[in-house]
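Bumping with the actual sequence this time:
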Amino acid sequence: MDKRYYAFISYKREDEKQAKWLQDKLEHYRFPTNLNGRTDLPKNVRPIFRDVTDLTPGILAEEINKALNDSQWLIIVCSPRSAKSPWVCKEAQSFIDSGRADRIIPYVIEGVPFSGDEATECYPEALLNMKGNKELLAANVNEIGREAAAIKILARMFGLRFDTLWQRHTREQKKRRIIWGTIAAFMVVVSMLISGYFYWANNEIKEKQNKLLISQSKYLASEAKKEYDKGNITKALRMALYALPKDLKNMDRPYVPEAEIMLRECDKPQKEGIYSRSILQHVNQVNSAQFSPDGKYIVTAFDDNTARVWDAKTGEPVTEPLKHEDSVNSAQFSPDGKYIVTASYDYTARVWDAKTGEPVTESLRHEGPVYSAQFSPNGKYIVTASWEWDKTAKVWEFPPLEELIDKYRNDPEHDWSLTDEEKAEYSLE
């Protein structure tokens, strides 16, 4: 090589990021030792001149000119910004004036060459005025992508066919992806095996410890009950307290309900019965639970396809189960406490009378499982949300029965009463 630099990259400061990427890409590209019989290709294409990497602050214009003269090629990062830059234009003109117009490679990152529109033109004036400018072989990122554009520049610089170089590049990239993918997969498997072993071992230890602590807590709770029955309330309280976690957010031992029941029983004499205890026993998983607005009732939803209404004080069921065809995901009271809306995996939401447990509307249907349903604050609307393949939320109008009846009985424009003939037809009178 009779020049110091393989190429000089000319660019507008706003395009520095793209210029730096191109420099790194070109300088780190490795040619094969033998490509189509070519043995003269360098191992790598460096150095490439870019002023931010090669010049010190306060550099003189003559040193720029020296770098231009010491470069085999001029690569211009073309954009509407660089097209307006007098420095980019001067650098291009310098190459043209030295008889090396054929060694200019436009690298188009934005805009349109020869557009004639100031807003989109990406070539500096020096290129536009150059004789035979239509023959400029640009590497256009917008057309082929920046990776291929970089390879196209290399093919131009070393007299290679772009297709040949690009095909080789893509093959090498594919090989690297396969190799690194294999290594990554292997490391993931190894990591999973190691993590899995330690996780299993740790869980085994924790499981044994938890079983021992649960057994201990249940034993203490039963002994606390005996002491309570004997009248030793203080001792029973201390035993129940010992059987419970010190911090429920960061538990040092498993929670057992028997210990909590005993603690509350022991606390009753001291708090004058302020606490009451109800366990709403389910067979299947409980998915939601909510108090009524007045706090007298609780509604729960669970996986046996039902929701249930309970007396909050006694824990006794108030109505028959509110039945769906599949698991009930949520159950919510209306703001006035008169109604309950349930959401189910059977693609429906349903509205029920909170006192009787009877349905009061047709099912509110989705195309997939309904995850949640809730009344608006004024109780006149219901919003439902579905998941999986439905992926919608719907808003439904819900007038309470009283309002719906009044709407028609008090309609000033229509009389919705049965006629005498209709009454006689159905033997109503």
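The tokens above came from a reply further down the thread. Residues 286-409 form a domain with the Methylamine Dehydrogenase; Chain H fold (CATH 2.130.10.10).
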